[in-house]
Amino acid sequence: MSATEEFILAHRNDDVRRLALQANRHPEVDMQYALRQIGGWQAARAKLPSWAAHDGIVYPPHLSLEQCSSETTALYKAGLCRQLLDAQRIGGGAMADLTGGMGVDFAALAPLFTRAFYIERQTELCDCARHNLRVLGLTHAEVMEGDGLDLLPSLPQLDLLFIDPARRDQRGARTFAIGDCTPNILPVLPKMLQKARCVMVKLSPMLDWHQAAAEVSGCYKEALRHIHIVATANECKELLLVLSSEPGGTPLHIWCSNDSDIFVTDAETERTAPPAPVASSEECNDALWLYEPNAAVMKAGCFGTLAQRYPLKAVAQNSHLFVGKQLVEAFPGRRFRVCGVTTLNKRSLRERLDGITSANITVRNFPLTAVELRKRLRLADGGSTYIMATTTAAREHLLFVCEKG
Q1: Cβ(316)–Cβ(284) under 8 Å?
Q2: How high is the pLDDT of residue 168?
Q3: Is residue 367 reached through a cis peptide bond, with omega within 30 degrees of 0 on the bond before it?
Q4: How far apart are CA 319 and CA 323, in angstroms?
Q5: pLDDT digits over 258-311, tens only?
Q6: Cα separation of 329 and 332, whole Å?
Q7: Any alpha helices (H) in 244-292, and if so which ranges?
Q8: Are 181 and 166 in contact (CB under 8 A)?
Q9: CB atoms within 10 A of CB 25
Q10: Which letter does DSSP use for residue 110 in this model?
Q11: Is residue 172 pLDDT above 60, yes or no?
């Protein structure tokens, strides 16, 4: 083992910035490489735990690690891919990732196929992939250096084509629209669908799914089959488009996934669903349960369908909170048992908050921020009490004092 490798193992739990200041003490160590590996391993412990469990992984520059999928979202794609293969009753013959990057998505998808092509333009990332994929046991992976779209004609017929267009422009600024990403997949979708049975596209969670559906359908009519809004720990991470070249298209389905919490609808249902019914002031004050949709459902905006499926009413059209008198265990989001409801009236606040010294505060469609409201209520953060502050359809500012359901 080299001095650099020994240094990495001995100091990988140490503060990287402090180690950088001590570089002169270790002339025998390739300090730039060592610090990158230590920092990469520390980031991977949370983002890519199975990768971090392998001592032999080589971490690329920080930007690639920052931009790569988390292990959770990569495994979601693998589960989705398995469903697609089963639905088409085909074995996993061949797949290709046209924008390999760090290889996290590729490593999750490749085990489902007999042949798997990792394609990447950057030499350094290709070198890392050749090493890391062997460490991860993916000995059948074929690493190809070059532009994925340029190399597409040289590939065999595929069961899956995966692409994650870069969401930064030439100046490094973030982009969100499909046409602004690199590469712009819209002009080449027909060629991609000629090469593969299924095409999976990863996009920014900031992109509106209606806009994405319209743009893609305009280039290849009826090919778009699924849109997946993927969130973890109630934070939207990515938008996945699934297209198929197979005949017999089905209605466009929208999957709102927040870890194991999944809500599925379709575009036609969303188009025809009436707005969610709005609760009256009396119904708000008499509510026994309060419901907050998860981040994926919030992003999808399918509140009318949500209200159709569950016997609930919206506090207001723009508050995105729902109330009811019964427990709905299948609701895709957080459930709260309502202990009391109050306005900002001082007397009412004293009565409802009597004995409460701390609370978790959330505001939705409310004139104060959570910090401002906490200061006004003089409550510490945390505890078992939850306060959901919002505005009703009657423009009344209400605080629902709750406990987790």
Answers
A1: no
A2: 61
A3: no
A4: 11
A5: 998 999 999 899 989 999 999 999 999 999 999 999 999 999 999 999 999 999
A6: 9
A7: 267-272, 281-285
A8: yes
A9: 9
A10: G
A11: no
